[in-house]
C-alpha cells in the first residue's frame, strides 16, 4: 500500500473492534472471499491492503470483511434471504447477486467507491480509502448495497437538491424514493438495520439511523417526505 496514506479512526466508534472480534475465523474469511466478489482479485487486495493479514482491522480487507459480516448476519433469521421479505434479510443476497468483481484502490484520499458497467467495460466495483477510513461498518455495508444497485442497472438520474451536503446542483442524486435507485436501497437498508439489526450494538444502530437520514435529506431531487 506504498502509494496510500491514511489514518485509522477510533475503531470502537466505527464498529471495527466489535465486528473484528468475529471475522477472524477461517470459515468466515473463506465465505466472504468467495461470495462477495473478492475471489480472483488477490492482486488488488495484497501489497498492504490486507490479503496477507486478513484479521487486521487497521487494513482495508478486514474492514471490508466487517461490512460483509454485518450484511450477512444482521437479520435475526439471516438464513432466510428471500426477496419477498425484509431488506435486512435479502440485502446480502442482492450484493452477492450483483457484485462479482470487487477491487481495492487508493483513490484520491476522499473518494468512497465507484461502479463501472456497460458495453466494452470491465464490470466492477472499486473501493477507495474513503470507504474504509471515513465510513463506519454500517456505512460500508450501505456502500456495498449502493454500488451493487448500480451494477443491477440503476444509474443516478438527477442532480442533488439545494443545500445538499453531497454537492447542490451536481449530478449523482436520485430523482425520487420511488425510483428505487442506489440511494434508496442504501437508506432503506440502514433503516431496517436501525429498526431490527441483530448481532450489533445500539450505538451502531443509531449511527445507521443518522446516516440514513443524511441520505434521505440530501440525496434525492425530491425529498421523500419522511425520515427515520
What does the main sheet amount to? 3 strands, mixed
Number of strands: 5
**What's the overall geometry?**
globular
Helix content: 40-55%
Unreliable stretches: none
Q: Helices and strands: which structural class? A: mainly alpha
User: What percent strand?
Assistant: 5-15%
Rg over CA atoms, rounded to whole Å, is 17 Å
Q: What is the average of the pLDDT values?
A: 96
Q: How do the strands of the widest beta sheet line up side by side? A: 1-3-2
| Cα end-to-end separation | 38 Å
The helix/strand order is HHHHHHEEEHHEEHH
Give the number of helices. 10
What does the model show?
- The mean pLDDT is 96.
- A hairpin with a 7-residue loop joins strand 2 and strand 3.
- Helix content is 46%, strand content 7%.
- The chain has helices at residues 11-14, 16-23, 26-35, 42-45, 60-73, 87-98, 129-133, 137-151, 182-196, 202-218, and strands spanning 102-104, 113-116, 124-127, 158-159, 171-173.
- Strands 1-3-2 form a three-stranded mixed β-sheet.
- It is built from ten helices and five strands.
- The longest helix is centred in the last third of the chain and has 17 residues, at 202-218.
- It is mainly α and 228 residues long.
- The protein is globular.
- This is Metalloprotease.
- It comes from Amycolatopsis roodepoortensis.
Amino acid at each position: 500500500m506504498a502509494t496510500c496514506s491514511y489514518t485509522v479512526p477510533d475503531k470502537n466508534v466505527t464498529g471495527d473492534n466489535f465486528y473484528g472480534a468475529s471475522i477472524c475465523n477461517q470459515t468466515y474469511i473463506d465465505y466472504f472471499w468467495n461470495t462477495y466478489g473478492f475471489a480472483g482479485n488477490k492482486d488488488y487486495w495484497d501489497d498492504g491492503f490486507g490479503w496477507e493479514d486478513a484479521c487486521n482491522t487497521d487494513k482495508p480487507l478486514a474492514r471490508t470483511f466487517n461490512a460483509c459480516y454485518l450484511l450477512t448476519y444482521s437479520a435475526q433469521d439471516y438464513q432466510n434471504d428471500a426477496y419477498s421479505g425484509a431488506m435486512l434479510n435479502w440485502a446480502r443476497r442482492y450484493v452477492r447477486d450483483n457484485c462479482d468483481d470487487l477491487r481495492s484502490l487508493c483513490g484520491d484520499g476522499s473518494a468512497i467507491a465507484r461502479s463501472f458497467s456497460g458495453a466494452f467495460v470491465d464490470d466492477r466495483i472499486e473501493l477507495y480509502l474513503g470507504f474504509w477510513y471515513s465510513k463506519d461498518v454500517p456505512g460500508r455495508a450501505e456502500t456495498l448495497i449502493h454500488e451493487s444497485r448500480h451494477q443491477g442497472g440503476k444509474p443516478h438520474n438527477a442532480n442533488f437538491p439545494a443545500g445538499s451536503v453531497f454537492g447542490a446542483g451536481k449530478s449523482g442524486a436520485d430523482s425520487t424514493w420511488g425510483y428505487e435507485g442506489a440511494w434508496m436501497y442504501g437508506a432503506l437498508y440502514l433503516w431496517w438495520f436501525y429498526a431490527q439489526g441483530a448481532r450489533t450494538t445500539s450505538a451502531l444502530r443509531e449511527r445507521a439511523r443518522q446516516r440514513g437520514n443524511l441520505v434521505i435529506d440530501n440525496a434525492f431531487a425530491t425529498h421523500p417526505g419522511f425520515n427515520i
